[in-house]
Amino acid sequence: MIAEALLYAATVPMTLKKHRRFIRYSVDLWSRAGRCSRQWAEHEERSRNAVTSAMAGLRQKRTAVVLGSGLLRDVPIEELSENFDTVVLVDLVHLASVRLWLRLKGYSNVRLIERDLSGYDELAVGRQPEPLAFLRTVPYLDFVVSANLLSQIGRGAKRRYEAEENGAMPADTVTQLIEAHRSALEAAPCRTCLITDISYAVIDRNGKVHEEPDLLHGVSLSSVQANWKWPVAPLGEESADYRIVHEVVAAY
Question: Which of 117, 144, 158, 190 is deepest in the core (most CB within 10 A)?
Answer without folding.
Answer: 144
